[in-house]
Amino acid sequence: MSSFRGVFVTGTDTEIGKTLVSAILTKAWNATYWKPLQTGLADEAGDTPTVRTLAGLTPDRIISPAYGLKAPLAPLAAASLEGMTINPGRLVLPAVPSPLVVEGAGGLMVPIREDMLMIDLVQQMDLPVVLVARSGLGTINHTLLSLEALRKRGIPVLGVVLSGPENPGNARDIARFGNVRILFSVPQLEQINETVVSEISESVPPLHVCQQQSSQ
């Protein structure tokens, strides 16, 4: 594991709150944000402007996506529609002085190329993972499967972030059966803005503390 270089934020599903969690972590750790693979740009501006606004980032703490694709599909499918093949050589960690928060696209088994899944990219980047999971029904199965997939590859897991209404039972069972720490929770929010992100970020332990705890 690359010491203090940052984290890779992935999720147990799509539309699960990875971008919000990435903004919170970037704010909490005074980090730099990078989403290397952005899809769905035909319908929206993408996650980078969202994180920039929510975390109140200056331009020097934002790295533009290596690929910006139009279709709201997995990177492989979106790139294929544009007659493009994603080059892994462009998916290399940039050298930045601050910690880096890298946000993936979708979940761990999302295809990037014919010979590459998102979990392969995680392994290539050699960063510990923050796994974002729903707090409600079904999350134990999805979260434990994702944790098992990461550990089979020898990928370190910094911890899990639960998103949604508070569910102490699910949090307890994920921590217990997944042998993982719940870093923090993101409640169901009526509105998402810079103030909310700043408030939640205050409950996030420092990155070096998270890394020390995850190695214990």
From TrEMBL:
Gene3D superfamilies: P-loop containing nucleotide triphosphate hydrolases. It comes from Gluconobacter frateurii NRIC 0228. It catalyses: (7R,8S)-7,8-diammoniononanoate + CO2 + ATP = (4R,5S)-dethiobiotin + ADP + phosphate + 3 H(+). Coiled coil: none annotated. Keywords: ATP-binding, Biotin biosynthesis, Cytoplasm, Ligase, Magnesium, Metal-binding, Nucleotide-binding. Its cofactor is Mg(2+). The active site is at 35. Belongs to the dethiobiotin synthetase family. Its EC number is 6.3.3.3. Homodimer. Substrate binds at residue 39. Catalyzes a mechanistically unusual reaction, the ATP-dependent insertion of CO2 between the N7 and N8 nitrogen atoms of 7,8-diaminopelargonic acid (DAPA, also called 7,8-diammoniononanoate) to form a ureido ring. Pfam families: AAA_26 (PF13500). It is found in: Cytoplasm. Mg(2+) binds at residues 19, 47, 103. ATP binds at residues 15-20, 47, 103-106, 187-189, 191. This is ATP-dependent dethiobiotin synthetase BioD. Pathway: Cofactor biosynthesis; biotin biosynthesis; biotin from 7,8-diaminononanoate: step 1/2.
